[in-house]
Amino acid sequence: QVQLVESGGGLVQPGGSLRLSCAAPGNIFRFYAMGWYRQASGKQRELVAVISKGGNTNYADSVKGRFTISRDNFKNTLYLQMNSLKPEDTAIYYCNVAEGVKTSWGQGTQVTVSS
User: Fold this and answer.
1) Can you tell me the distance from the alpha carbon of 56 to that of 52, in angstroms, rounded to the nearest whole number?
2) CB 20 within 8 A of CB 8
3) Residues whose CB falls within 8 Å of the CB of residue 27, separated by 6 or more in sequence, listed in order
4) Which residues, in sequence order, are bridge partners of residue 78?
5) 18, 66, 74, 110: most buried, per Cβ within 10 A?
């Protein structure tokens, strides 16, 4: 009954960096691939990065080489290191399972990239 909780967003200049965190329930975190999603204003939510339970990763072409997804299995926490941020990265970022049935969405964390 506990929501996924995203944090770490903020306002940054183009080229800057942010590290997002997602606290997830242990039963979900341990047994599923996890992903970071984002939703820009007026756009559909999209998957940007995935990490398997074993640590294998995959990225959307738009963020490949700039973002790094990772997970801490002891802390049940998912991370997204975001480097070389662009204005096009502006969105609300969410975490959730990347396979199976989605759990309830959290509030997300706002990332705004602007001069």
Assistant:
1) 5
2) yes
3) none
4) 22, 71
5) 18
Residue 73's pLDDT is 87
The two three-digit tokens of residue 53, written as one number: 């339970």
DSSP label at 87?
G
Residue with tokens 């502006």: 90
| Residues of the chain with confidence (pLDDT) below 50 | none
Indicate the DSSP class of residue 45: -
Residue reference for tokens 């396979």: 99
Tell which residue, 58, 59, 62, 57, has the closest CA to residue 43: 62
Q: What is the DSSP letter of 100?
A: S
Single-letter amino acid, residue 75: K
Per DSSP bridges, beta strands 91-97 and 77-82 are unpaired
